[in-house]
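Run log, item B.
One chain of 144 residues. Sequence copied directly from the ordering sheet:
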Amino acid sequence: MTSMFVNLPVTDLERSKAFYTALGFTINPLFSDHNAACVVVEEDHSYFMILVRDYFQTMTELPIGDPAVSPASATAIFLDSREQVDAAAAAGLAAGGAEPGQAQDFGFMYQRGLTDPDGNVVDFGWMDPVAAAQGPEAALKQQG
């Protein structure tokens, strides 16, 4: 089975753990310590490794940028409904995140941008199952 780990630099590990658990994710204590925490997005498949910046820096010789100023990536997590997207965004905002723009509704897809307290981009979205299987045009044709 394939697993995906997205590594994110953070300034305050405890604050970041609180943010990601407020979104409904869990922390795997077996792979967490004072330098890092393993955030379980989807068991046996998708994870964030939130790493204090000094520890993250040991993994690269390149300078680490500030994601709040110059984001280098965005992780999109798709949920089963628009309501779940709104609930995840609300939970993230209540836990210290920010919403840099308005929700985007494309008819077949709905997304809300969110940043964690360090500025790492974690978007939430929903896609019509017809669009996911057959493409956006099929979903729009069915709706319209």
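Observations after the first pass:
- The first strand starts at residue 4 and ends at 10.
- The mean pLDDT is 93.
Flagged for discussion on Thursday.
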